[in-house]
Amino acid sequence: MDDYNRWSKHLPDDLIEMIVKRLTLVDSIRFAAVCPSWRSVSSQWSQRVTRLPWLLDSTEILDSETVNYRLYSPSEDRVYDLKFPRENNKLDASHSYGIRCLGSIDGWLIMSEWTLNNISYDRKSINYFLNPMTGDRIKLPQQTEFIPKTSAASSDPRCSDCIVAIGEGSNLVFCRPSSHELCPWEGHQDCHVQYVKFHEDGKLYIIGLGDTCCILVVLVLVSVLVLDPLNQCQGKGRCEKIIAYREMTISVPGDPYNETALSWSPSFFWSSKGEFLLFWWFRRGDFPFRMFRIDDKSGYNPIWVRLEKNDIAEDEVVFLSFFHSTSMSKSKSFMTTIDEAFLGLHCGNFFIYDPDRSLTSDLKILDWVWFTPNITK
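The structure assignment produced for this chain is given below.
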């Protein structure tokens, strides 16, 4: 059939938009592949639906070949189940295995598929970037020293200057996408890496934890370290700075044997004002988080300052989950009526993702990671 006579090209844009609005985001992406006119209208609608961050709710290995990714779209208040092939399809009955999300950057999820020999305790993890909207992936070096728990990237993994940090416990390594080399960090051995995130200036911020028990009170010792990964990767020696190391002990009262009483999993981000905000999951009350800000005006002896909910800027929206937090500024983002309705109905300044499920040792719970959808190749 002559391309000029395709009936799809003669539908008015208003009618095409009415159709797109009734599609899910995934279907609208397929809809866009029909022709340029459909793609133009569909892309405009998709951009509106992806204004708010999405959340990876869980991952589940279905069989030796397939992983199911469960994604939540706040704007649509909808859950998607997307299936992608496994990177490591060799399963052995003598090995424990699993998959988890370590972090996100510019629409990419940092994934880790791991195996653990139950007899020799040999471990291996295959790590990679995945764009859950397009299915594209970029490999990272294989890790055999530890099973990763957290990761961060300095920029889009397609950029040549991208650096990736991968950590767990006292272990932290740096690498680059599509490389085979790992550069270990020889830092504080008493710093148990819990969460890592790059600042826009290229520095890596690390949350390190320690704890002590006194009768039935748990005292959590929090440290924040700042590294220059470029110096680390080029072998220029340790370039680190401790900006708030045990300056304040965050006291979390509760039964240390009651795992539902508290979580050892803080996360942090920078507010629209550039403040370092620490969010600590404390599973009690209507607002199960404790918020802290680093007060480093003196530049010498920074301390933690406890915040209340109304201390967050009115034009900022904070998205919280068990292991991951992020924020967006209303003033710097185009907000549709759908976005405004969602924010006004569900959260105001806070959206807390806490589905009704018991806290267990199920590793899928580690996959509550916010990301910004990216539908471009």
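Interim note for the steering committee: The first strand starts at residue 54 and ends at 61. The longest helix spans residues 36-49.
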